[in-house]
Write a structure and sequence with these properties.
Two copies of one chain form a homodimer. Helix content of chain A is 58%, strand content 5%. Chain A contains seven helices and two strands, in the order αααββαααα. Chains A and B meet through helix 1, helix 5, helix 6 and helix 7 of A and helix 1, helix 5, helix 6 and helix 7 of B. Chains A, B: This is Rrf2 family transcriptional regulator. Chains A, B: It comes from Pediococcus inopinatus.
Chain lengths: 154, 154
């Protein structure tokens, strides 16, 4: 779900902005405008993967462990939104070998799976071109990111 | 929904394979392994957009109107899976101006919308690089499409 990615990006920005103050998940949740329960799962993943440090409970709270310029947007995307494992429910035709008289139906699954997989690779590689520092520029100067992409694609 | 795209691709392949025989939606549905009701909607769109010709009812059926090499995969993708109009449900933070004390929360929506929109543009441009003739090669020689992408990206 894309929301998980947004939760991660927003949380890391918020921790950076308030560094070195320890931020409780409750405060973070208010900025994200989400229930604290929803974001704890993502915070736990970010903690496990070394993006943030800290603890829950009394006097607890999180701090950013890495510089925004060292956090790749694509890595964060892959971490929070894993690739689709099976495209079966998006694909037409019969399972292999069921109907030898209809090669299209027999082979659609393999061909479309490759198409969708390669398209998704391209999609993800787009995110990998940027760091959170790039995105943060856009937060304060909206339009920066669009310009950056335009320039890169020239 | 990605399934609509697969329905369109599969239908056009099937009509081409059986040209110039008129194909009823019932026969098409059997190849797609879907209920005929599910595919009629897509067939109607393909008909309206000039990909296929024909009629429903007695002696009815569809024929392909264009060559596979003239049908762009990306056009078909855009036609069957329109771009997301609003990313609001995937985005954290408050609506603009609600909380001037928290610029991150205020600005996340604009920044993430640009990020998601530009990433989706890239995703769709991948599909636009190919025609149905490219995909059909892969149906009969699986692996062709993967090779083609590899070669193009060099």
């Amino acid at each position: 779900m894309k929301l998980d990615f947004s939760v991660a990006v927003h949380s890391l920005f918020y921790l950076e902005e308030n560094n070195p103050r320890k931020i409780a998940s409750r405060e973070l949740a208010a900025s994200l405008d989400l229930n604290a329960v929803v974001i704890r799962n993502i915070l736990s993943v970010l903690h496990k993967k070394g993006y943030i440090e800290g603890s829950v409970g009394k006097n607890g709270g999180y701090q950013l462990k890495r510089a925004l310029a060292d956090i790749n947007v694509g890595e964060l995307y892959d971490l929070t939104i894993p690739p689709t494992i099976s495209y079966a429910r998006f694909i037409t035709g019969k399972s292999e070998g069921v109907n030898q008289a209809d090669p299209i139906s027999d082979n659609m699954s393999e061909t479309l799976t490759d198409l969708f997989t390669l398209a998704d690779d391209q999609y993800r590689s787009f995110y990998h071109r940027f760091t959170l520092a790039d995105l943060k520029q856009d937060l304060y100067h909206h339009g920066y990111f669009k310009q950056l992409v335009k320039k890169n694609d020239k």
